[in-house]
Structure formats: structure tokens, C-alpha cells
Amino acid sequence: MARETLVLLPGMMCDARLFAPQIEALQGRFDILVPRLEAPSIRAMAQAVLDEVVAKRFSLAGLSMGGIVAIAMTDIAPDRIERLALLDTNHLADAPGRFEIRNRQIKDVLAGHLRDVIVDEMKPVYLAGANRTNLPLLDLLVAMAMDCGADMFVAQSLALRDRADQSATLAACKQPTLVLCGEEDELCPLDRHREMAGLLENSELVIVPDAGHISTLENPATVIAALETWLARPAS
Q1: Using one digit for the tens of pLDDT, what is the confidence trace for 135-176?
Q2: What's the CATH code of the domain at 225?
Q3: Looking at the whole model, is its pTM more than 0.85?
Q4: Alpha carbon of residue 179 to chain centroid
Q5: Phi/psi at 214 (nearest 5 deg)?
Q6: Which among 12, 69, 76, 158 has most CB atoms closer than 10 A?
């Protein structure tokens, strides 16, 4: 019997290492794919992943920007998505005021200051309070970002800056959906996830203690348990 395919979409300036504990726990039972997200629009990222995945139907989980792309994928090809998991993410358009911030960050990164932007502006708000002195985790976040590189930063920043509100897509979604949020996520707060869960027809909301925006690495055991439960649900 063929194994199910699980597609994991990482957040901005992250790669498969964002899901390392979950991949280790699940790879014996699922064919796992972690695509690169480097197109300059959310829709283009979504279409690129759909083109890359060989399986006709698959379960799909995304964290942060990955979740935004996952929602777009369910809009483009709902018949291919068996289950949907939205982790520490946001269904709305970019907040007012972010346009200027993203443009300035793009300018700084193109001038050679990628590390400064990641360390000074992004990394401090990623983690729960107790995890902000976890040097191995902080170093991993910087390492992923530096390995992704400046070109990916620019493309992803443009995609996030210009993204559309996806509330209607969630309201039309029929898939069994996990909505998961780190309890201390400041970037995509709990109320935003409650709103997403309320829009969805078939959702479960899980709040992860001792975690901020990077729940998969801050409290991996709780995230693994939530994904296990979600993956055991009958597919749409």
C-alpha cells in the first residue's frame, strides 16, 4: 500500500530544519516533502508547490508564511488537499504600515545587511519569553536565514507585502483542518487563530504552551502530538 504524502511549508527564511523534530517522528509513515518557497507572490509560490508535488492528493501543513501559501493552495486546487494544518500563521493581508517596513528591509538586505535584519528586527519577536536565551535555537534561526540568502528574502518579502486577504478561502475550505498557535506568538497571535478556526467548517484549534512563533522547535512534542491526531482524521 502506497504511503500518504505530507507536504510541509516552512516560514519566511526557514527550511526543512524548522520541522526537524516532526520529520523525524513522521518520516517512517509518510513521504515528506519540504519545498523551497522563493517566488515573488503567494499565488506563484502556491502554484509552484502544486507543480512540484507528484502525488495527486496529499496532506498539507504550513507555518507562518508557509501557512499563507497553504491557504492559497487550497484555493487553487482544493481537490488535491486531503487535510490542512495552519501553524502560527495569518489569513489576512499585510497589516497597515508593513509596506514601508518591508521596503526598507529589502533595501537593507540588498545592501548586504541580511544578518542585521534577521538578528535585530525579526528574531527577537519569534520566540516565547523563556526561549529568547536559547542560544542553539537562536543560532539555528539565523543559520537558516543566511542559508536561504538575500534573493529569497526579497522574493518572500514582496510576496508577503502584496498578499491578499484569504478569509473567503478559509470559509470555503472543507478539509479537516488543524489550527495551531504558540501561546506566546506575538507575530500571529492567538486571537488571529481563533478567527481562522471560526471561519473553517471542520477545524480543531490547538494552543501550544511554552512556545511563540516557532512552535515546531520551541515545543516539538506538543506539535507532533497535534499533527498525529490531525493525520489520523479521515481525509476529505
Answers
A1: 999 999 999 999 999 999 999 999 999 999 999 999 999 999
A2: 3.40.50.1820
A3: yes
A4: 11
A5: -105, 60
A6: 69
